[in-house]
Structure formats: structure tokens, C-alpha cells
Amino acid sequence: MNRFLRGISLYLLIAIIAVSIVSSLYPTQERRQEVTYSQFMQWVNENRIAQVTIIGEQLVEGQLRDGTLFRTYIPAGTINLGNMLIERGVQVSAQQEPQPPFWMSLLPHLLTIGIFIVLWLFILNQMQGGSNRAMSFGKSRAKLHTEERTKVRFDDVAGLDEAKEELIEIVEFLKHPKRFAELGAKIPKGVLLVGPPGTGKTLLARAVAGEAGVPFFSISGSDFVEMFVGVGAARVRDLFDTAKKNAPCIVFIDELDAVGRQRGAGLGGGHDEREQTLNQLLVEMDGFEPNTGIIVMAATNRPDVLDPALLRPGRFDRKIVVDRPDVKGREEILKVHARNKPLAKDVDLKVIARRTPGFSGADLESVMNEGAILAARRGKKEITMAELEEAIDRVILGPARKGRVLTPRVKEVYAYHEAGHAIVAHYLPHANPVHKVTIIGRGMAGGYTQFLPREERTYIMTRSELMDELAAALGGRAAEELKFGEISTGAKGDLEEVTRLARKMVMEWGMSERLGPQAFGRPAEENIFLGRDIARDRNYSEEVAAAIDQEVRSIIDQAHQTALQVLKEHWNEVVAVAEALIEKETLTRKEFLEVIGQEETEPEFKEAAVVAQPAEAQAAAAAVERPAADAAPGGRPSAGKPSAPSHEELLLDKTPNPKPAVGIE
Q: Rg of the chain's alpha carbons, rounded to an integer?
């Protein structure tokens, strides 16, 4: 700010000097009364004028006998004015009209050009961060954070106990290096935070900045590369030069994949500025010159595209996976975000945590914030459970469309569709219990069925569980067939999700009885710029491809028959639920059980603490519990892609967060 004020003051001083010079070139003139030519002639006839000066051909300046100064202009072509005034005893003098010097005619143009030059220098100076050098593009843009400026501490980070433990150890390395040096331990050179978006990677880095007690430099990966060649490498060198002067210190690079993408796939065949920047980063992290006392932290949600040389020990010694929290972690996160919010007595954060499997820390923060907004909108002094329940629905599918008017026919189709989902899921042993059924539109969905899992399937799913989920997804379409004798476009989202999940069962999880335990197709490792799905390597024949299609069709047909069988056996319950939805539009779990004549049984919620998880299990869990914003009428929301990356310990789900809901548009 002081640098900005100094720059403004300099340009203001230059402007004042320029105005002063121009003003000094024009002499100050006495104040004279402007009069008309008629008034002037009247004064002449009245003999009131003492003296006049005729300047040029038309300007006349003079003085009355009482001392009044005046000025007038005579009409063009007036002759003998001087003789007439002399005859009347007026003292007359004449002057030529003053001509400005030649350079004065150029002054306006010079001033205009000067103003543009000063303005351009000012803008360039601000773009360069106030640097006095005209071309200081190679200056690092890293920001220095101190404990006083950073208010985030490890106590403000919840649900990430393992990641916090690793980072607390890094802070202890910096605060008490002798304790570790006595045992021969070396401080890690780099820490890579890996996890889906919104899980708290940057928040952890801010907590480290607040706890470390050493200089903390932060920069984004996109801040290195600019329009000029060589700028990225120069900024990397400047960053580490500054860090060496402030060692011990921490350097944090956010969104590392912007600069650390795998080399060897540059398009265009020319000079790759990004690769040069990456090469310089590799040298600075572990080259010939040691960087004692400098710890490099980085965060990314795309570890699969990073260069292998960047991930090896000696550069990033520790890779910390920051995953979505479990039910206990979600409860702790909710408590953190509820600190400054007045909660009503009926609010149970444990229930909210159970209702939000797959939510990231950012999602949970949004839930609490939406609840506070709803409470304020309704004029309440406290946030009740009703606001938080609705906030969850808003985060999953968007705001309710209560103003939409449904025709009786469409309302009946929606009701039977959602009733089909609910009944099939309720009576299948491996499906999740129904939490809420509604035909009120929300976001892009026209209605939805929401489930509350018995346990979070974050690590393993069996074939039976997947088949029940497929059957529940097809329950809406099956109910339409049985009720109306035909199908509608409402099952579009259902069919997309079912087809995707069935194909994964065959191609990735080896759940086909005919093809056996095989995985078909693998991502091409080289074409990283084409995307993992486009660049998928097909390692099977046309005959096997046809067999895969047949197996996918067989699995879907089997799930469809299961849904039809369940609905036929419990058709009375389907009709009862549909009629209740037509009347009330929304049924809670308790109301749903009352309609089908069963008692309320609170499902058991279990949380499995698993340290390491297979990639296939993560993908399977995500495939079932993932929501869809693009669900078609009567469909279960599309779950998105549950594919897991190929790196073993850096496996991430890069698709939308899984949330337990199905819906119709």
C-alpha cells in the first residue's frame, strides 16, 4: 500500500510541475469589464474615456476617467476609430496582437503524449508489483505468511486426524530439529497433499502456516508460467533464492498439476515453457545444490497426471491422502462450522453426519451455511433441524421448485415412479433403507428418493449389493410398466446409471460369470492430454467386446426382473405409497413405514475404520452412493464416474462427491 501511494505521489508531482510551467508562460492579466461596442461608443460620446489601447484589428482595451478598466471588440471594417478618439481628447495607443512561439503550438500534443506515457508506466509498474525494474517478470509472486497473519490452527481442522498427525510432525521438525538430528533423522524435503476437491488440502496448509513458527511462502501453480518464454523458470529460481535467505521455511505450491504435469507430451513440437518450468522445479527441489531447511508442500487433486520425477523420494518424500471424512470426521467438521451459529435443541449433528455420506468438508460447510441462511430467511433466532435437513437437499440437488404445477397425469407418473424406487429398495436385503420420498421438484430433478445407509460402503461392495442397487434403480421404470402398461422418458437417468455400473461390474470388477475374473481395457499412460477416458487402451478382441455387451445386458435384465418380482409381490404397498405421495407430495421414513403398515425400526449405522482400501472397492462404493444433477424424469440421479486413478496410494475419485439420493426431473 505504501508503495502504491509513493507511485501516485510521484505522478501527481509531475503533473503539478507541468501545469505550473504552462501557467508561467501566460502572463497574468488585470481584471477588465467586458462591454459591448454600443456601450463603448456611448462612453465616447459622453467623453468618459481617458485612454485606450487598440490591439490588432478588433480588440480595444481602455480606462475610464474614474479609473474603471474595460475591454471591447470593434466590428470588422471599422475605420477612423483612432482619429475620432483623438479628436475627443482620448489618449490613444496601438499594439500588435501577440503571437505565441512555435513550440507553444506543439505543447498540447506533447502534453497528450506525455500523459499516455505516464499512464502506461503507472500500469506497468502496478502489474510488476511495484518493482522499480521495467521488466521484472521473473520475480516470484509467492506471498509470505506469518503466525500473526494466519489465524488458522490445527484445532480448526477436523476430520483429518491422520493427515494432521503427519503435518504436526513436519512442524516439530522445524521447531525442534536437534531432537530428530540426534537420532540421525533427516527432515523431509517435500510433502504432497492429495485428495478430491473440497477435502481441506489448502486448509491444512494454512494451519501449517499458522503453527510452524517459520516463514511460510505460498504460491499457485498457475503463477509460474506467463506469456514470455523463460519467465516460469526464472520465477522458480527467484522463489527458492528467497526461501534460502529465510531458511528454515516452508514453500507451499497449490494446484501443483498446473506446473507439474507429466513431460513428453507437449503438443506443437516447439519449445514447451511449462516443461522448462518443471525442469527448474525438479532441479531446485533436489539438484546439485542442497536446500537445507526448505520444506516444499504441494496440493493437487490430479496426482495421476504428475511427472514421475516429481513424485520420487528426495523431492516429495511424503504423500498424504486427504480423503473425504467418515461419519465421525463429518460430525467433528460440523461441530467446527457450528461454533458461531446458534443451534436449536432439536439439532443432532450425529444424524446430519449420517445423512451426508461422501460429503467433503466444503460440502458440510455449505450445509451449515445454507441452514443459517434458511433460518434467517424465516425470521428464526436459531437454526433448527428442519433448516439443516432442507440444506442437505439444497446441497445435493438445489433449491426446491415449489411453484411448478403438475398435471394430474404427470403427478401420478412421478408418484408411481418414486414409489417403485422406494418399495424395491425397502424389500431387497442389501439395499439402503429409505429416508425420504418426494415428488417436489428440486434443482434439475422433479422428485427423488433419498436413502440413509446402514453403513458407509467406503471400502467394499459385494455383487449381491450391487445387484440390489441395480434393481432399486430400475424400480421406477418397472412400476411404470406395471401401472400404465408402457414406459416414459422418466427412466433416462436410471438407464444411464445402470448401464454404467453394470459395465464396470463386467469390465473392471470381474463380476461376470461368463467372462470370469478379468479386467478389460486400461487407460493409455502416454496420451495424458487426451484424457483418461478418450485415451483408453482396448486390449480385447471384437468377439470379447460382443461378449461384454451381452453380459452387461444380462446383468441389467436380471436386475429388471428382480424389480418386477418385488413390485408384483408388494403391489398394494406401491399403490398406497403412490397415493400418499399424490396427496402429501413428501413422505418421511416414518410416514413411509406407516403407509406400508410397518413399525419404525432405526437402522444400525456402522463405521468401518479401514486404513488402506482397494481401488476397486472405493470405485464400487462411489458408484452406488453418487448423486446425479442430470436425472431424467422418474430417474435415479446419475452417479457420475466412480473410476479410480492408476497410482496405487494416490487413488482419487475425481468425479462429483457421492451423496445418497435418487430423483426424477
A: 39
List the grid coordinates of 181: 538430528
Give the 3-state secondary structure of residue 349: helix
Q: Which domains does the chain have, with CATH numbers?
A: 30-97 (3.30.720.210), 143-263+270-321 (3.40.50.300), 327-396 (1.10.8.60), 404-523+536-596 (1.20.58.760)
- Catalytic residue list: 418
- Work out whether the CA dihedral 255, 260, 264, 266 comes out positive or negative: positive
Find all residues with CB under 8 Å of 274, minimum gap 6, and list them: 225, 232, 259, 261, 266
Q: Give the Cα separation of 640 and 551 in Å (integer).
A: 22
Long-range pairs of 99-108 with CB within 8 A, sequence gap ≥ 24? 104/25, 107/22
Residue with the three cell numbers 419404525: 600
The crossing angle, in degrees rounded to 10, of helices 542-569 and 463-473 is: 70
Arithmetic mean of pLDDT, 376-402: 87
Three-class DSSP category at 422: helix
Burial of 309 (0-12, 13-18, 19+ CB in 10 A): middle
How many other β-carbons are positioned within 10 Å of the β-carbon of residue 268? 6
Which residues, 6 or more positions from 399, have their beta carbon under 8 angstroms from its beta carbon? 442, 443
Q: Sheet containing 59-64: give its strands across.
A: 33-34, 69-73, 59-64, 49-55, 91-95
Strand partners, 297: 191, 252
Are residues 574 and 567 in contact, defined by beta-carbon separation less than 8 angstroms? yes
3-state secondary structure (DSSP) of residue 63: strand
pLDDT tens digits for range 21-37: 666 555 555 678 888 88
- Side chain identity at 318, as an amino acid letter? R
User: pLDDT-derived band of residue 338, with 50, 70 and 90 as boundaries?
Assistant: very high
Residue 540 identity? Y
Return the closest-CA partner of residue 562 out of 460, 430, 662.
Answer: 430
User: Before 248, cis peptide (omega within 30)?
Assistant: yes
Model pTM score: 0.65
Q: Can you tell me which residue has the cell 479410480?
A: 644
In this predicted structure, what is the pLDDT of residue 423? 94
Q: What DSSP character marks residue 368?
A: H
d(CA 200, CA 299): 10
Strand 49-55 to strand 447-451: parallel, antiparallel, or no bridges (unpaired)? Answer: unpaired
- At residue 616, the pLDDT reads 34
Q: 565-624, pLDDT tens digit by residue?
A: 999 999 999 999 999 999 888 888 888 988 998 887 654 433 333 323 333 333 333 333
Residue 526 burial (CB count, 10 A): 12
Angle of CA points 315, 319, 320, to nearest 5°:
145
Residues with Cβ within 8 Å of 505's Cβ and at least 6 positions away in sequence, in order, are 463, 466, 511, 512, 555
